[in-house]
Structures are given as structure tokens and as C-alpha cells.
Amino acid sequence: MIFGRSERGKPPVEPVTLKILVAGGFGVGKTTLVGAVSEIRPLRTEELLTEAGRPVDDTRGVEAKGTTTVAMDFGRITLREDLVLYLFGTPGQERFWFMWDELSEGALGAVVLADTRRLEDCFAAIDYFERRSIPFLVGVNCFEGAARYPVDDVRRALDLDDHVPLVMCDARDRESVKEALIGVVQHAMARSSRRRAVTT
User: CB-based contacts of 32: which residues, under 8 Å, 6+ apart?
Assistant: First the structure.
């Protein structure tokens, strides 16, 4: 079944819907990631960067960026007939962080995108999900021309706990993004299973 349509002779399946956040610093590729994988036209709330924002928007390393997300990006992807992910891309700049609490309500987990040229930009997102015990995966967005580092080196630079998955990905590539999203779902489910085992 694809959203209300079912094959002849088969009862309709009501899909389980899961909410995944896509977070990270300014210009790291959140909007691109949502757009690459969404099966619907993504909802975007992008506005042009202005001179007034230059003092607060650090564009080092992303000088060609001309727009910014001011509320959220939204997309949808069907992983299986019975499993649908809703994707919410968070705004990257500090002045829009007040929206993160609203967006994270009911989220199964998150992808924190990182850019090796500006690793410090994803620290706030990592800290946010750690403090709220929301499962997350770090996806290193492999930009063209950016230096490539071994996964262990990036993990150490980010001071990630051993249980936090870290993957290399390309936010422009649908299959690469799907693998990262599947990784988040698996990580969240495994963590939930471990917690249930401890309480029983």
C-alpha cells in the first residue's frame, strides 16, 4: 500500500510513522539531505542571507551560501510498506535554536550532520541531543574538496561516546542518506531494547 492504495486482495496496511530530526551547523547540508531523500516536494523555509545577518552568521567555508533555513525543512520517505519517516531539518543558526524544543518533541532520533572543515559547528547539536537523551547518529557530509579523515580521528575530535554511530555520507545522494536514516532507526531501536532489558 502506498498511502491509502493497496494491492488487490490484500488488506490495507497502516504504516508506522517515525519522526527524525536533521541537525547541525549553518551550511552543513541539512536542507540538501532532506531534499535528496524526500518522496514529496520538501517544505522549505529558506530566506536570502542579508547584510544585517552577516555579523551573526558565520559563513567561513560556505561563502557561496546565499540562503538560510529560518524555521525548518520537512520531508517524507517510505522505507517499507509499513514504515514511514517524517524528516524535520532544524535551523542551524543560534538565533533560531529556540525552535529545536518544538521540533524535537516526539522524535525517535536525529542525524547530526558534520563538516570536517567546521567541526565545531556541530558541537551544539551533539550537546543538545546528549542532554535530552535523544538517540542520534553523526553523519560526516563529504563535501567536494574537503579533506577526508579516518572515522576514528573524527570521533575523537568530536569526543563522541563509543555507542554513538558515526558514518560518512553524501547529503546529495539518496542512497547514502537512506543508509544514514536506517542507521538512526536501528540505533534508536537498539537503545530502547537495552533500556527495556535493564528495567525487566
Answer: 171, 172
Rg (CA), the chain: 17
pLDDT digits (tens, 9 = 90+) for 149-170: 999 999 999 999 999 999 999 9
First-to-final CA distance of the chain: 36
| Residue 116 DSSP code | G
Strand order in the sheet with 16-24: 73-80, 83-89, 16-24, 109-114, 136-141, 166-169
Phi-psi region of 91 (alpha: psi -120 to 50; beta: other; left: phi over 0): beta
**pTM, entire model:** 0.78
Q: How far apart are CA 124 and CA 129, in angstroms?
A: 9
Beta strand pairing call for 67-69 and 73-80:
unpaired
Which amino acid belongs to residue 44?
R
Interval 58-107: pLDDT, tens = 555 555 545 554 457 899 999 888 989 999 998 866 666 677 888 899 99
**CA atoms within 13 Å, Cβ hemisphere of 166:** 23
Task: List the beta bridge partners of residue 113.
Answer: 24, 139
Burial group, residue 40, by CB count within 10 angstroms (0-12, 13-18, 19+):
exposed
Beta bridge partners of 169: 141
